[in-house]
Write a structure and sequence with these properties.
With 273 residues, the chain is of the alpha/beta class. The chain is built from 9 helices and 7 strands; from the N terminus they run αααβαβαββαβααβαβ.
Amino acid sequence: MTLAPGTSPGVAHSLDPALLEREREHFDRHYADEASQGVATLSDYDRVRYTNPPADTIFPREYYYHLLSPIKGKRVMEIAAGNGIDAAILTHNGAELSSYDLSPESIALVEERCRVNGTTGRLRTQVTGDFDAAFVGETFDHIVGYAALHHLPDTDTLAERVYERLSPGGTAVFAEPVLNSKLLGFARRCVPFAIDDMTDDERPLTDADLRRFGESFDGMHCRYFQLTSRVWRLWPNRWSLAVALHKLDAKLLKLPLMNRLATVCVVSYTRER
């Protein structure tokens, strides 16, 4: 199974309704097409890979799950359910998951993916594009999202509401595309094709965006990934190439200022009290 971001937005209530409709239509088509190709169970490799991965992993998704481990029995809210890969992993690892998305096709795919993996007993879903309307009145040990925040123009006010819905001692963990180099941004615009499937309304985040989001919290920690390895999705079946590029990135990112060229940041925000 190839794991790709494929995540649609869990959108704050202040968004333009026209934007919401564009996003919903885009992701309804995307996930309906993905579902039509069949839904597989997690491989034995992925079941092991995303259960308590090490802190020094070279892969962003493994690090995302490192920050959440151990998650068994924890109450988790997932912003933007996407294609259900993370819902399947979270529930496989024992999380009590409440997952929402604005796309009905996304939620149908999430439910089917957890069904085939035998974890529907730990899953609740809701179709909504409004964080405040999702699982109203409940608090969680973790609030998470993989490639979710960068869809949202109003992350500053969202941060305050995420903080309020975390239980004391809880964490919010996100993995987001980032773009901190104007030169890199110019180079991307010159490339005649896109590596990732993006909507017209989304944009990568910057370090400044992530820091502003963190102002509502008691602590923040981030780690950067993907320099050369960004291109591996052009050859998704070349796993040896993916590993080699991620290893190269891990070495390059130890050098001064290389974080500014990274394209993914995995970040955790903590609520202490």
